[in-house]
Design goal:
The complex is a heterodimer of chains A (272) and B (196).
Chain A lengths: L2 H12 L5 H13 L1 H21 L6 H14 L6 H17 L7 H20 L2 H19 L11 H6 L21 E5 L6 E7 L2 E9 L9 E5 L2 E8 L2 E7 L4 E6 L3 H9 L5
Antiparallel strand pairs in A: 1-2, 2-3, 3-7, 4-5, 5-6, 6-7
Chain B lengths: L1 H14 L3 H12 L2 H17 L10 H17 L9 H12 L1 H14 L12 H9 L3 H12 L4 H8 L3 H25 L8
Helix pairs in contact in B: 2-3, 2-4, 3-4, 4-9, 6-10, 7-10, 8-10, 9-10
Classes of the chains: A alpha+beta (272), B mainly alpha (196).
């Protein structure tokens, strides 16, 4: 290999990205050729400099503590609402047994109050619960199918069953009975009967659900009129949701991407 | 409940040791301590929420970096997408035209510094900081993930959601830019003879 070719490979050599054969060629060449060695050492020095500059920044100690504290209040996502309620119940029982009970009785009352309020809303099919439910469905579908890392966790239950390759295939895996979308992975929400399609938008997972053919209560949601269509925007647990209706049914698009992005996306969906 | 406790413990053991790396990266995304702290915190909460989807045995650091990046983009680059490669097309042609000049530059650097890289470290901390910060985000990110965090091209490509080839070209162009601006600083400060 000529010096020019060696120099071209110096970065990959330093990054340990060369295969064994090439690595050997480069390292032998560097040992023998002083010009290339100079370049190599210079590159190495530059990297060391950048690295030395960057590794000096440690996160402040209070940040660590703050995060740990917040994890407690956050909790791992519980996909099943009933399960969640069961967990809450057992928590409550423990609280009753604990000595701290009296000191935090007031907060429990507030929580219970909130719970009743929430439950009442849920029963009434109020807008809060619509968004809450679609977010739950979204998270469940995304968890079942694909999150974050396209290459390691794409394979979802549905695809396994259908023996399909993921994402790339545009025709056979799209039909979730009611929804037809290119590049989507269909999932049926257990227990809800709602159809849901999860797909990839610029690396983010977006889910589209059919909410049914009736009117959905959207009065408390932010309303945006575009053309002759009305879109309702909601947010729950950090997820944005866009709800809209066509002649046949109501749809909801959910993801943790920004609201206006999601809206733009919703407008351009090629729905059947 | 016990399951939750175990998950929690596992999460803390696996994920929390990377807090410095994440914070350092966050700082180089937004250059503001408080916002970087918030970004890191949000990243951890998100990671915790989705911890069940993390595949054991894969690189958790890369996974966390990906969440950090997504969180950053969602928060700070909402409507405006990441500036596309298109933006840098011009720069690419520019740099091909200048290839000879740049090779010349790195040649001069090597010569004048007599391969003693120590001299480069005479550059002020601020100069290095500026050189890094003035890089376009995609290049900065690729270089830091590669040189500082020592992640593989494949990991970086997953974090940045681009093909490995793009990572390579970002690294190449980024390094050239970085070298060039460091060289300018070195020249200004008289570490390199201006007449050469």
């Amino acid at each position: 290999m000529s010096c020019t070719e060696i120099v071209k490979q110096i970065h990959e050599f330093l990054d340990k990205e060369l295969d064994v054969a090439n690595r050997l060629v480069v390292s032998n060449h560097i040992t023998a050729c002083s010009d290339c060695r100079q370049k190599y050492e210079f590159e190495m020095g530059l990297r060391a400099l950048i690295k030395a500059h960057c590794v000096n920044t440690a996160a402040p100690a209070y940040l660590h503590d703050r995060i740990i504290k917040n994890l407690t209040s956050f909790g791992i996502y519980q996909p099943d609402i009933e399960e969640k309620q069961a967990v809450n119940k057992s928590k409550t029982i423990r609280l009753f047994a604990s000595k701290r009970f009296y000191s935090i009785a007031a907060s429990i009352l507030i929580l219970l109050g909130g719970g009743i309020f929430y439950y009442a809303n849920y029963q009434n099919g109020n807008t809060l619960s619509v968004v809450d439910a679609v977010v739950s469905n979204h998270v469940m579908a995304v968890n079942d199918n694909l999150v974050f890392n396209e290459t390691t966790s794409i394979v979802g239950n549905i695809n396994k069953k259908r023996n399909n390759s993921v994402m790339g295939n545009t025709s056979s895996l799209i039909d979730a009975e009611l929804i037809s979308l290119p590049g989507g992975v269909p999932a049926r929400q257990p227990g809800t009967g709602n159809h849901c399609v999860v797909f990839n938008k610029d690396g983010y997972k977006v889910s589209l659900q059919v909410l049914g053919d009736g009117n959905i209560p959207c009065r408390n949601l932010e309303k945006i009129v575009l053309g002759n269509k009305e879109y309702f925007l909601g947010n729950c647990k950090g997820f944005n949701a866009v709800i809209w209706k066509d002649e046949r049914q109501s749809y909801c698009l959910t993801s943790d991407i920004a609201k206006d992005e999601l809206l733009k996306f919703a407008m351009n969906l090629p729905l059947r | 409940m016990r399951d939750d406790d175990n998950k929690r413990k596992e999460f803390e053991e696996l994920a929390m040791p990377h807090i410095d790396a994440l914070y350092s990266m966050a700082l180089r995304y937004i250059f503001n301590k408080e916002e970087a702290e918030d970004l890191v915190q949000e990243t951890y909460l998100k990671a915790y929420r989705f911890f069940s989807t993390f595949q054991q045995g894969t690189n958790i650091k890369a996974w966390l970096f990906k969440i950090l990046r997504n969180t950053f983009i969602n928060k700070y680059r909402k409507a405006t997408n990441m500036p596309g490669e298109v933006l840098y097309e011009g720069l690419e042609t520019l740099s091909t035209e200048q290839t000879t000049v740049q090779e010349d530059i790195s040649g001069k650097l090597t010569d004048t510094l007599a391969t003693r890289c120590n001299n480069v470290s005479n550059l002020m901390e601020d100069d290095i900081k500026h050189a890094i910060e003035s890089l376009p985000l995609e290049y900065r990110e690729a270089i830091l993930l590669s040189d500082v965090e020592e992640l593989s091209y494949k990991d970086i490509s997953e974090i940045a959601n681009v093909p490995v080839g793009t990572v390579k070209s970002r690294l190449n162009r980024g390094r050239k830019l970085l070298q060039k601006s460091l060289w300018e600083y070195a020249k200004d400060r008289g570490f390199i003879d201006r007449r050469k």
